[in-house]
Design a protein that fits this description.
about 270 residues; four-stranded mixed β-sheet; two-stranded antiparallel ribbon; 8 helices
Length: about 270
């Protein structure tokens, strides 16, 4: 019954989006232009995030789900990258397996795997190393994994100088990710972060239109990932939640029923 209701809801969403598309061609609201300079120099964490981006792009090409980056796993992977500057292996300096770095009480995983690499200065170069290695590539395209961490370390005194680490993790089917302490703050890094220009602009194109309505419905119905700025832009009532009420407000705004966003629940 729940599946049937979800199908009906999706049909209604698509019909509503189609009607909006037909009706709102001249009602699209354009946000003020906002530009920001981008620093070409990446921090170690930004380089690590780019590894996640490359991983997800490769998985998407194969029809696989994107992986969530986890701050705690990133910390572990950063430590592992530093450890490999001394001992380039899947064992740690004390001889234990790499997985001994993980606090199982915080991350009760079903399986965990690791990729390491050395010698590549850039995320793209590192990723090509893994792409050309069957064992590493098998980890990257594993259908069971859902979360990962990535780490990077540069050490001019070490043999390969540039060191990289990936930790992949899957969980038991009965686990509720929201209840797992170690997954707090999980996110999906973006190659080009979507930056909304105003409330309701969820795809960052400076317009508030049907495409934004489709995105908010995908977020509500299917858990489609929003970054922190998209979450703020989708909260049309500024009440700290994104619900069907926000979607309805966005729909009314596109059709001209209300004049501005955000709006007040009591206005």
């Amino acid at each position: 019954m729940n599946s049937f209701k979800k199908i009906i809801r999706r049909v209604i969403t698509l019909v509503s989006a189609f009607m909006l598309l037909c009706c709102s061609a001249t009602l699209t609201t354009i946000c003020p232009d906002v530009s920001a300079a981008k620093d070409p120099e990446l921090t170690p964490q930004e380089k690590a995030d780019m590894i996640v981006v490359l991983t997800n792009e490769a998985r998407q090409e194969l029809g696989l789900s994107e992986l969530y980056a986890v701050p705690l796993l990133n910390d572990y992977a950063m430590t592992r990258a530093k450890e490999t500057t001394f001992f380039f292996a899947h064992n740690r300096l004390d001889g234990t397996l790499f997985s001994s770095i993980i606090d199982y009480d915080k991350l009760p995983y079903a399986s965990v795997k690791e990729n390491i690499a050395g010698g590549s200065e850039t995320p793209d170069g590192c990723f090509e190393q893994w792409r050309n290695s069957s064992g590493h590539w098998k980890n990257i395209i594993n259908e069971d994994i859902t979360h990962m961490g990535a780490g990077y370390c540069f050490d001019d005194t070490a043999e390969s100088k540039w060191y990289w680490d990936q930790i992949f993790m899957s969980f038991f089917e009965f686990d509720d990710w929201e209840e797992i302490e170690g997954l707090e703050g999980a996110y999906i890094p973006e190659r080009y972060k979507i930056v909304p220009q105003c409330c309701g602009d969820l795809n960052g194109d400076g317009n508030v239109d049907t495409f934004d309505y489709i995105l908010i419905m995908k977020h509500i119905d299917d858990g489609y990932y929003f970054n922190d700025l998209q979450v703020e832009a989708a909260d049309c009532f500024q009440d700290g939640m994104i619900t069907s009420a926000d979607a309805q407000a966005l729909q009314r705004f596109i059709l001209g029923g209300i004049k501005q966003l955000p709006m007040s629940l009591f206005g």
